[in-house]
Design goal:
The complex is a heterotrimer of chains A (259), B (224) and C (293). In chain A, 76% of the residues lie in helices and 2% in strands. Chain A is mostly helical. The chains are: A mainly alpha (259), B mainly alpha (224), C alpha/beta (293).
Chain lengths: 259, 224, 293
């Protein structure tokens, strides 16, 4: 009874607020202006999503399913118009998009190049073949190409940028001299940075029992990682709160016109 | 044949990309392979949409529990797809931008997709607050270190961080919260994240090598 | 004697009280327009100085790698960068690796550049290359041939023929760029731009990142990345520098992140108080449990 009463009070208060704002002309008329209709639609969907805070309910589920449907369609449309038409058809048969859609694409593509671009067409069709009764096996060929490309790209990039470059960045003087004299602050920072890195790496070494020097280094490494995770938590809170601020700002400013 | 062909494709593709770094003449082949990859990624989006169509379509056909929501999902999917593929409403028609000024897809992006996406994610702010209250417990020294760092960062990333320690003399400037946050991020946090980054890089290098050499074939599914 | 019933601080009611507190923490500063002047950090100043030092006509890639979910943090950053680059008369190449990023670029080009900088001509001073699928593969291709990766702009004008897009003349690949600015919310994003463009090509790069991802990216600074704006705070600091340097920008549209820092500050305080309250309740209960035993 209390729960239903609370829901009723909140809903009626919101309705009252909206009616008051609408009657004073502070809110745009959704029947006159597509942007106003959009604001009201956006507000409705926002409130549906936020209603999940109280618990799963039909409004939330409706908005969630609409979101999933629109999202899938949007991604398909972008893939078609931004990648398949200009990059695949544009190399395979540019006359087709030029004639059908009036797109400005170079038509003088050599035959050799056109034949080469039959390969991604075939691979793409193989990928879609997984919907056919025996298509799963064929679709693994396309998947294998994706996996191979990803493996080849990432091996080099992670080796150079995340492994070698990070080690190189860490090789810095541990005794810092500035303006001809010893700089205590930067020296301490450099020692902590390098020492902290080595100790954190020691913590992730599980092939030996943590005794002696390795044990001490692991212990220090845990402390460094705790500082890292504490900062990560702080930044995570900041990030999540900012997202809520944006939504509330939309409701109060763009929809209700309160601020 | 079932395993050999996919493995051969993976092997050739990966090694071409690897060797292109040290053998410039095959860089042209590398570039084409990556272009093919970009196009294949677009086909994967089509796959996702088709999969959604199939799943929710089956649910509607069988009148399974919650089929009404599936109908809403498919309705939104087909409507958006139609409006977007035909570039309804936008200036330039089929030759123009898919999200052109005044287009139906642009309206859907701004007033349907955007608000849903943003609102769903904004729920996390409430959950992080709830989790902070219920789960962040100072049980030991390490947790205390984590908590203190979190507090310094939370304060330091706002105006209050600067105001709270403004009164400190210049000799103690490094202890002012904004400076402390700057130091924490550039020294211990960088050390910790760098260690994690190096570890992840080693993991990715090893996984990539296992895939390239055919030691790891889990991506081929149960047939492998 | 039966024990006194414990308050339901961890049950469903307790959770809803916390949600209400958070909502109030965000609404109240907004309604009362609580905002503060930001003190930009050294890293933000470095980023600002790097763009401030750009000569007119500098070629800059501005990648909008985010979606509406991250818009509250990322859009103010992207807008601030767009304004600054326009003021420096840079030639801006907008592109994105996220399908939903194209909508974000559309908004900045139509509602910011076209309105605030009408002298900025599309095709000559800036171009919208839109979205391309392939994640880091796109960057890899663009490093050797930008026009193969982005064969048309969003209006389907060919980048290769160059007739309709004078800005693309003389551009072969990303190595022709003077600066890359990536405003990114995750994968693919700043890490990929650093790995596949900045490091192999030696191209200077500046980043803007969501707060959640920022700590992971700080190890790249300063050797591989000039600097990173982290979250809403970073955006607010940059807006403050922009407003201080260009006073004519001191208007609501250019102070979005600055205005949002008010609710942000109060919400941070609420979270800190919740953590303290949770621990106090926990310690009190533990002591009562020990005493009862």
């Amino acid at each position: 009874m209390t729960r239903r009463l609370a829901i009723a009070i909140v809903s009626l208060s919101l309705l009252l607020l909206v009616l008051i704002r609408a009657s004073t002309g502070a809110m745009a008329n959704p029947f006159n202006d597509p942007r106003a209709l959009g604001s009201w639609t956006a507000a409705f969907l926002t409130l549906c999503m936020l209603s999940f805070l109280y618990g799963d309910n039909p409004f939330f589920r409706f908005a969630e399913h609409v979101f999933v449907g629109v999202s899938a369609a949007y991604w398909m449309i972008m893939a078609f118009w931004r990648a398949i038409v200009p990059n695949l058809l544009g190399n395979l048969a540019p006359e087709i998009p030029a004639a059908l859609f009036g797109m400005d694409l170079p038509l003088d593509v050599p035959l050799g190049r056109r034949l080469v671009y039959a390969v991604p067409l075939v691979l793409g069709l193989l990928l879609l073949a997984r919907f056919l009764p025996r298509g799963r096996t064929l679709s693994t060929w396309a998947l294998a190409f994706t996996v191979g490309t990803t493996a080849g790209l990432r091996l080099v990039s992670y080796l150079v940028s995340d492994f070698m470059a990070q080690i190189s960045n860490s090789l810095q003087p541990l005794v810092v001299m500035r303006d001809g004299g010893f700089a205590a602050g930067p020296t301490i920072s450099a020692v902590i940075l390098t020492g902290g890195l080595i100790c954190s790496l020691a913590y992730f070494y599980f092939s030996r029992e943590r005794q002696g020097a390795l044990g001490v280094a692991s212990r220090i490494g845990i402390w460094v990682l705790m500082v890292t995770f504490g900062a990560g938590f702080g930044f995570t809170v900041m990030g999540r709160v900012a997202l809520l601020v944006g939504r509330v700002e939309f409701l109060l400013r763009d929809w209700l016109g309160l601020i | 044949m079932q395993r050999a062909v996919p493995f051969a494709i993976t092997f050739v593709t990966a090694w071409v990309l690897l060797w292109a770094v040290v053998v410039p003449p095959i860089d042209q082949i590398r570039e084409e392979f990556v272009l093919f990859f970009d196009i294949l990624a677009a086909f994967a989006f089509l796959l996702g949409g088709a999969s959604l169509l199939g799943r929710h379509g089956r649910k509607i056909r069988r009148r399974a529990r919650g089929w009404g929501y599936s109908a809403a999902c498919l309705g939104a999917f087909l409507l958006t797809l139609g409006l977007g593929l035909l570039k309804v409403g936008g200036e330039g028609g089929l030759a123009g931008s898919v999200t052109a000024e005044g287009s139906a897809l642009g309206w859907i992006y701004e007033y349907v997709f955007g608000p849903c996406d943003a609102s769903l994610i904004s729920l996390l702010a409430f959950y992080v607050a709830s989790a902070s209250f219920r789960a962040f417990r100072v049980r030991n020294t390490e947790a205390t270190v984590m908590l203190v760092t979190a507090f310094i960062v939370l304060l330091g990333r706002t105006f209050l961080g600067g105001v709270a320690t403004d009164w400190l003399p210049e000799q103690l400037a490094p202890l002012k919260i904004p400076n402390l946050v700057q130091w924490i991020m550039s020294v211990p946090v960088t050390a910790g994240n760098r260690a994690i980054m190096i570890g992840i890089a080693l993991g990715i290098i090893s996984t990539s090598l296992k895939v390239m050499l055919g030691i790891d074939r889990t991506y081929l599914g149960e047939d492998a | 004697m039966s024990p006194r019933p414990q308050p339901e601080v961890e049950g469903v009611t307790g959770r809803r009280v916390i949600y209400a507190l958070m909502l109030l923490a965000v609404i109240a500063p907004m309604v009362w327009r609580i905002s503060f002047k930001e003190r930009p950090s050294a890293m933000t100043r470095d980023i600002f100085a790097a763009i401030e030092a750009l000569p007119p006509g500098a070629r800059v890639v501005l990648a909008y790698d985010f979606d509406p979910a991250s818009e509250p943090e990322m859009k103010p950053m992207g807008d601030a960068f767009s304004r600054h680059l326009a003021l420096k008369q840079a030639r801006i190449f907008y592109l994105t690796l996220w399908p939903l990023g194209q909508g974000e670029i559309d908004m900045v080009t139509r509602r910011l550049l076209a309105i605030e900088y009408p002298e900025y001509r599309y095709g000559t001073d800036y171009v919208n290359l839109g979205f391309m699928s392939g994640n880091e593969g796109v960057i890899s291709v663009a490093m050797t041939d930008l026009k193969k990766g982005f064969s048309t702009d969003v209006h389907n004008a060919s980048t290769g023929t160059g007739g309709g897009l004078p800005i693309m003349r003389g551009i072969d690949n990303l190595r022709n760029m003077d600066l890359i600015v990536d405003v990114a919310a995750g994968y693919p994003g700043l890490r990929e731009w650093i790995q596949y463009a900045a490091v192999p090509g030696g191209i200077p790069i500046i980043g803007g990142s969501v707060a959640v991802k920022s700590p992971e990216l700080f190890p790249y600074v300063p050797a591989q990345c000039l600097g990173i704006l982290a979250g809403l705070k970073g955006a607010a600091e940059y807006e403050q520098l922009l407003v201080d340097r260009y006073p004519h920008l001191d208007r609501p549209e250019s102070r979005v992140a600055l205005e949002r820092m008010g609710p942000q500050t109060v919400a941070h305080l609420v979270v800190m108080l919740l953590i303290i309250a949770g621990n106090v309740i926990h310690i009190t209960r533990r002591r009562r449990g020990v005493e009862a035993a």
